[in-house]
Design goal:
450 residues, alpha+beta, Aminopeptidase, Alpha-Beta Plaits, 2 domains, 6-stranded mixed beta sheet, disordered N terminus
Length: 450
């Protein structure tokens, strides 16, 4: 692949690399045979070859490959920075798209495709920044590490978690940056750039409802597991756990400089849900609610054997996202509270219990991101934020490593648009954003590592 673009303007180069990553269609549906991230590792290795970088490939299962490269620092005691981007994407229904989700089309300065936002844009820009730094003879005090990682979209089993557990030296760092902040949010005092310093935990579970089988022609007074499951789903969907104004949310609201008629309700537990329901900006409403509540979303139902048989067993899955401090027993107590008198008929089968994680804000990495971002986005200030999804940052936070989610995006993408494109239809990113993120990584490497 060509790397002949200008050192001062990497936009064309990162655009080309992103398009190729999209076209690789490394779709991860959660099964071992999916993903195929080796295709994108091959692409990235081909792109990075010739720059003097040593490339390390890790493939715990066939096709589930990750790539690591580094620019070694002069001082072994200086801090190391890891830029981490994943190469897998979630499945897609092309019927909801205006363009081919794996075409990587460039239209009017915008690249379309699955992963354009989540997060192949950053994976590509991190690679281009690393290559440009290596080509320019970058020799910092601290070490720069680039990681293109597999399996982020399915809990990281064959990606970041495996690397941390089996090849920790290869990905060791003092600071990590991954997805997905940096979208400008207008405020009365200028644009604010959210930095993901925390993320909610996951408590994915299956609820098993039992009944008594019978003939479908005689439904009166039967013990129908499907009917009970439907009522359990309804109750869980209607359940309202308490509003919790935690420190990260408070710092975000205070940092946004919202007018008092917005900031006061945003920091008041009483009436918070009603305020979110009335907000005209649905993206902000959903984010505000999710950031301040343990959330319960019934998502998948399985049950029944035949149209004329009263079902005796129904399973339904619930995607539960937890706040800092939530434990498994506390979540199960909330489920039982939500289901009320049905709780005795429902078995809770835990599938994943990942606790919420958080990094401090008072760090050299925070200061470096602020210095660089304010130069590339004049007048912008960074604000701490919590992502309500899961990222690979959690594996590093558990080791005591400071890990943030960031990038840098133009004003062409609004916060609402950005949020809606994650796992949604018509994912796209503009070239100005691609150029900004690439410049960000180069500048932060120089600023932080020295």
């Amino acid at each position: 692949m060509s790397t002949a673009s200008s050192v001062d303007d990497p936009t064309a180069e990162v655009t080309d690399l992103l398009q190729q990553l999209i076209r690789n269609a490394c779709v991860n549906d959660g099964t071992l045979a999916s993903g195929g991230e080796a295709r994108s590792v091959d692409l990235l290795a081909s792109y990075l070859e010739g720059s003097g970088l040593d490339l390390e490939r890790y493939e715990p299962e066939p096709g589930r490959a990750s790539l690591v490269t580094r620019i070694e620092g002069r001082d072994p005691d200086a801090p190391a920075l890891l830029l981490m981007g994943h190469t897998d994407v979630v499945p897609v229904n092309p019927d909801g798209w205006d363009r081919d989700p794996f075409g990587g089309e460039l239209v009017d300065g915008v690249v379309w495709g699955r992963g354009a936002v989540d997060m192949l844009n950053l994976t590509a820009s991190m690679a281009v920044a690393t290559r440009h730094l290596a080509d320019g003879g970058f020799r910092p005090r601290g070490t720069l590490v680039y990681l293109a990682v597999a399996d982020e979209e399915a809990l990281g089993t064959y990606g970041a978690e495996w690397l941390v557990d089996h090849e920790r030296d290869a990905v060791s760092a003092d600071y990590v940056v991954t997805e997905s902040g940096g979208i400008p949010i207008p405020s009365p005092t200028g644009p604010k750039l959210p930095v993901i310093v925390a993320e909610k935990g996951t408590y994915w579970c299956t609820l098993r409802v039992r009944g008594t089988p019978g003939h479908g022609s005689q439904p009166l007074r039967t013990d129908n597991a499907l009917v009970k499951a439907a009522e359990a789903v309804r109750r869980i969907a209607a359940y309202r756990p308490e509003t919790r104004i935690h420190d990260t949310w408070r710092r975000f609201v205070e940092g946004m400089d919202f007018p008092s008629d917005l900031s006061t309700p945003f920091l008041t537990a009483e009436g918070f849900v009603e305020m979110c329901e009335a907000l005209p900006m649905i993206g902000l409403a959903r984010q505000a609610h999710a950031c301040t509540h343990t959330t319960f979303a019934p998502t998948v139902v399985r049950g029944g054997t035949k149209v004329n048989v009263i079902p005796d067993l129904v399973d339904f899955d619930v995607d539960i996202r937890t706040l800092p401090g939530d434990t498994g027993p506390e979540v199960e107590a909330m489920l039982r509270e939500a289901m009320g008198d049905l709780a005795g008929d429902v078995e809770i089968i835990n599938r994943s219990n990942d606790l919420s994680t958080e990094s401090p804000v008072e760090t050299p990495l925070w200061e470096s991101l602020q210095r660089v971002a304010s130069q590339l986005h004049p007048g912008a200030r960074n604000v701490p934020y919590m992502t309500v999804g899961a990222t690979d940052a959690r594996f590093f936070r558990r080791l005591g490593v400071t890990a943030y989610g960031f990038g840098l995006f133009s004003n062409r993408i609004t916060f609402d648009e950005f949020s809606s494109m994650f796992h949604g239809d018509n994912e796209k990113v503009d070239q100005e954003s691609l150029g900004l993120s690439t410049e960000l990584w180069q500048a932060v490497a120089s600023d932080l590592l020295g």
